[in-house]
Design a protein that fits this description.
single chain; mainly beta; 7 helices; 17% strand; flat
Length: 648
Amino acid sequence: MVKLLDHSMPNAPEKYDPETFVRIFRDLEMALTKLDFPAVVSGEDDVNSIAWFLGTPDSTEAGGGGSGTVTSITAGTGLDGGTITTTGTIDLADTAVSAGSYTNTSVTVDAQGRLTSAASGSDAEGVTSVATGTGLTGGTITATGTISATGTLADVAGLAVTNGNFIVGDGANFIVESGATARTSMGAGTGDGTVTSVATGTGLTGGTITSTGTISATGTLADIAGLAVTNGNFIVGDGANFVAESGATARTSLGLGTGDSPQFTNLTIADAGTIGSVSDSDAFSISAAGVVDFTSTVTGIPSASFEIEEQTFTASGTWTKPEGAMMVYIYAIGGGAGGGSGGRGSTYDAGGGGGSAGGVDYQIYVGAALEATMSVVIGAGGAGAAALTTSTYGNRGTQGGNSTVTNNSVVIATGGGGRAGMGGGQYYGQGGAAFNRGLFSGSSMISTSNEWIYSGVMGTGGTGEDLNYGRPGLPGIGPGGGGGGSETASATGNLGAGPGGKGMTAFSGFNSPEAVAGARVYQGSLRSNIPGVGAESLYSLWDLTSSGYYTGNTSSYRYLGIGGGGGDGGRTDGESGSVGTAHTYGGDGGGGGCGGSSGVAGGAGGAGAFPGGGGGGGGSQNSGDANSGVGGAGEAGKVFIATLRFKQ
């Protein structure tokens, strides 16, 4: 360009004619006016003739001699046509959206602001159909339309909204009526609703009033209206008028006398009523404490009787107080204890002690003092002791469980569980001691204990011995104690382990008493060389004479004349004791087991009988080459609750 401006036009070559020059200048003019004048012009064509005309440019003059020339153009995001290094066209790139119109459109816009997706949708919230119900017309409309009122609604819609007008049906349509006209329609008259006439009935005077006037009470109402409102006054008729009377005067009018002690021809006192004292010298008197004393024959009282209702528990449960309960009697028997096992070996050769019977408790209560229900628990029988497999002391039996009656969280009767028999030792195995309560507490058969009896309390278990006999269990008020085990059998077979004590020897029931057992006496003459009692119940003496001695022909010999009567004790080598007999109010004790000789196991103690009988002690095994006898199990207890009640 500098050359073009600063130099003279070169001579035209011969090969250019005038038309060529015209074309050259036209091209020059066009080149000078283009905005995007090319930086370098080269070639052999018409355009290149300009370069020839201007002179060949060097590298420093290309594009006008400036710096930063554009060498290529690349199409960016959303554009098509790049990269351009010479000439080309850049335009918008097509997207996935088709050209066209969309309704309820859902679109996606990219970061360059282009629509990359578009779709027509439905008007989810739009109403597609409108139907018309009662009183309307014009439906169903699915696009456009008009809904109008019809029938009575059209009537109401066309009424004038005049102040005070009412909408009223005229039999064909709804119309508007003024207040006066509406009153007529209501049957309320045509006026403003004022009272036009007031008449007076019985007890009143002053009517009929049609405008103004006064109404007043008359007759008895006038009497009452004129009475003084004095504290304690009563309104009473005197035969002509109603008058006011004081309390004292009113009592006379009621026929109750004139003083502070009213007199009643008939008197009924409701439940929970409270009185001071009442008397009628001809019939009865009632003290302030509520005691009624009848002085003559009383009529009008319904017939009634007394009865005893008994509830028996062989398992734990709940006692319910009968209606009309006056006195409640409780007889509780504890669980009998298990007998001890016999010792084993020559050193420990005594039989096991018998378990005691379950203790008994006899209590009496006033019915009103007890709750409506009471909890009853039955004591379990104790297990007999296990046999020995090695030479040592015998095992102790298990104590019986307590039988209890609980009133309002307080135990009011306890049949104590029997005490267990001890295992056989070197000389003896002590029997368990019984313990009785209530009316039966301190019920001993003898005043002091002796060498044969650990405790004189009825139901105590017999002592096991290292001899050819065991001591008998004591008979019980309720259940009997278990007999003691022996070391060996006697040569004659008359002795052996102790029998169990007899059950139910002193108590036979509340409601249906049973016969108590009679005393058993040794059959035949007493033998002076028998320091113990025979093994069989038949030979047991359990009613001791006052002296405690039985006399032979020439001298007196002490004889253990109490005990036994229950299960037989074993008499032969290793024989087990017998199970006692059950009785309603106390079972027999089990008999003791007889000891075993060499190679023979000791006999097992017999189980006590239901309820509460003690288990017998097991026999010993003194040679140590066999097991000793197991103790007999005690039996479970029992509870009786008898209620003396008033029955109408």
